[in-house]
Amino acid sequence: MTDFSVKTLLLVDDEAVLVLSLKSILEQHGYRVIFALTGEDAVGLARSEPQIDLVLMDIELGAEMDGIEAAKRILSFRELPVLFLSGYMDRDISEKIDTISSCGYVVKNSGDDVLITSMRQALKLHESRQDLVRQRTRYLTLLESIPDSVYVLDREWRYAMVNDAAVHFMGIPREKLLGNRLVDLFPLDKNTPFGEAFKSVMNSGIPDMITAEFDFEDGRKGWCEVRVTPVPEGILCITRDITERKNFEISLQRNEEKFRTMIDWTYDWELWVDPGGDIVYMSPAALRITGYSTDEFMAKPQLIKDIIHEDDRGMWDDHYRCHGDQTCGDYELEFRIVTKDESVRWISHICQAVFGEDGQFLGRRASNRDITELKKSEKEKEEVQKQLAQAQKMEAIGTLAGGLAHDFNNVLGAMRGSLEIIASYLEKEQLQNEEKISKYLDTALKSTVRATDIIRQLLVMSRREEKNPVPMDVMSSLEHIQRIAQNSFPKSVSLEFPVAGDHLYIHADRTQIEQALLNICVNASHSMTIMRGEGEDEGGVLSVKTGRIKPGTDFINSHNGANGEINYVIISVADTGVGMDSETIKKIFEPFFTTKEHIAGTGLGLSMTYSIITAHQGFIDVESQKGSGSIFTVYLPELTLKGSKKNAVKQESAKPLRGEGCILVIDDEPSILDVAREFLAQLGYTVIVAEGAVAGLETFRDRHHEISGVLLDLSMPNMSGSEVFKKLKSINPGVKVLLASGFANDRRVKKILDAGAGAFISKPFNIIDLSKKIREILG
Ligand SMILES: Nc1ncnc2c1ncn2[C@@H]1O[C@H](COP(=O)(O)OP(=O)(O)OP(=O)(O)O)[C@@H](O)[C@H]1O
Ligand SMILES: [Mg+2]
């Protein structure tokens, strides 16, 4: 087996003795030696022997073929280093050797060392040459195979080297390019962007790279990128056609511009946060919604959390915990933010995890919508619905209470009347236990008065109480309330009432309005005194303020039935008392709702106030928080007074007015008949009573000539009041009738009054009222 690490020498010499001795010397130095004694044999061996590293060739090989000829032939088919051996060296030999690519010569007998050293150098030289050839081949293959055009310009601007791609790129044959000047081949203007770079690199020696538009030889317009590098002979230029890449970049850029424009102009505040919490993108809508610019958010991503309203932070933190977790799905939540100008806005937040095409988690993308206006209108809607529900509830309770009150009124009327009659008899009689009887009578009378009062409240609440609207000044009513408050509220409650000055006119029932406002003030006083917890200091400030408002959209939207055409008078009552939680606020206007069981609150105060205010087309708002006091705000339609401000409510006499004539009383309630008979008799009238409609009509038919007037109950079984009235009229068209009913706002009353009845009295009546009304009809 051939050992390739051992160098093989082909020794060629015609002297066999010399060959053998040299062979042995060379083998001693570790070489493998094959030999030939003639030039022909040497050529043959060179053909047949695959491993030959060096040929040691004697120049004089006899007559047929000398060593130089033999070497020439070998080198014609095989590249091998040849070291010539010669007995001597003269000019002739030296010239011959120079004609072939040899690796030198050695004079025979120069000694073994010289020979060995020369051989080694010849082998090394050959290897270097081989290396160089290999490198050059590699370099050329590389140069010609790359698609970029590569060329070298010398300092005279001549093409010193061009590759195939350059030839193709410039569309000029290689022969025409090489040795010719750039400026002669291409007009300068065509190369301007590149020419400038070429010059600058040529002069400065600093590499450069430029990209410019380019008109190609085939007429195309495109883009080129040229790298210019200084080399010893001038500059090396590598030109690449980047038209495709550039077009791609341009379309990419346009696409990005398109998407960025689209997203930058989104109405919502768009956001993309990477898994580490850094903001990748934020739309400029951030500024409109939060007051902070995207740059401010980019510089401080924590700002997103900082602007969350403190009450919603817990919820946000819970949500944010899932931020870096790619398994967290879509998330929707609503929270408030505090904007740069410190206003509060509602945000609807939707976010989702986002992934790249390769499935890599890229963070979360969120869309934030400003829903402040929506929230506001939802709240207003809720408010209006609450008001509607409240109104309906009050209506239902009112109907019920009104019905009860009506029946109760009759009973009460009889009781009260009877008691008054007993009292009047008592004055005339001398009784044994007069004092005691008087005392109990008084108690019984007071109780009926109190019961009447409660019934009245119920009737007010159910809106069946007669209303007597007059033009009135809220300021003077407040003065009245202030006086009552000063006299009756504990001294620990300090009162702040508006200073009289401005007038605020409304068209209202003064007594009812004062009652309504007083109820609110009494509650306010209670909230700072008796409602305080055990051990808490009593007292606080009750502050009443007034004003007027021209209703805007907000007011109209949140107050069902508000009239945008008029002004409303505002009366607000604020206290620094115990306040209410939201559950209590929901119930305060309900009749009989009270938290003052221990101090006998009836729970009718505010329901009455509510009824009065709404019956006057007004509104009540309540703001309160447990522990922080309450504010009740009443709105009533303002009355614009034209001409004289006449709100004079006649001062009526407190004495019963006596009269004469015969009065027929028609009622189905015997007790009422008794009372009426007694009252009228005391007033000086002759009285006929008839129980029920049928009896009443019969009596009237028989005795109408002597009857001056009729007291007629409206609510009787079998026949309605209006029917009875019609029949009375048919008997005597000039009949004078006083209608009586427990329902002040009974629509029938108005109808009958319009049809010619003289007046109306609400039940239960007292003797004074009755005396006046009877006078009124009799004229
Ligand atoms: N200013 C206020 N501060 C705290 N709580 C109040 C205030 N006003 C009303 N309330 C609450 O509303 C409830 C109902 O009030 P409302 O005036 O209808 O009845 P009341 O005061 O309890 O009894 P009444 O007025 O019939 O004597 C009260 O019991 C109280 O709990
Ligand atoms: Mg009250």
- How many beta-strand elements? 27
CATH C-level name of the largest domain: Alpha Beta
- The main sheet orders its strands as 2-1-3-4-5
Q: In terms of structural class, how would the helical and strand content be classed?
A: alpha/beta
Fraction of residues in helix: 40-55%
Mean pLDDT: 85
What is the general shape?
rod-shaped
| Gyration radius from CA atoms, angstroms | 61 Å
CATH superfamily of the largest domain: Histidine kinase-like ATPase, C-terminal domain
Q: Quick one: biggest sheet?
A: 5 strands, parallel
Low-confidence stretches: 642-653
CATH architecture of the largest domain: 2-Layer Sandwich
Number of domains: 6
Describe this structure in words.
Strands 2-1-3-4-5 form a 5-stranded parallel β-sheet, sandwiched between helices. The chain has a 5-stranded antiparallel β-sheet with strand order 7-6-10-9-8, with helices on both faces. The chain has 6 domains: 8-142, Response regulator (Rossmann fold, 3-Layer(aba) Sandwich); 146-246, 2-Layer Sandwich (Beta-Lactamase); 266-370, Beta-Lactamase (2-Layer Sandwich); 376-461, Signal transduction histidine kinase, dimerisation/phosphotransfer (DHp) domain (Helix Hairpins); 470-637, Heat Shock Protein 90; 662-778, Rossmann fold (3-Layer(aba) Sandwich), CATH 3.40.50. The protein has 26 helices and 27 strands. Helices cover 45% and strands 22% of the residues. The termini are far apart. Helix 15 (372-428) packs antiparallel against helix 16 (434-461) and helix 17 (474-488) packs across helix 18 (510-528). Residues 642-653 have low confidence and may be disordered. With 779 residues, it is α/β, with parallel strands linked by helices. 29% of the residues are buried. Adenosine-5'-triphosphate binds at residues 519, 523-524, 527, 575, 577-578, 580, 584, 588, 593-596, 601-607, 630.
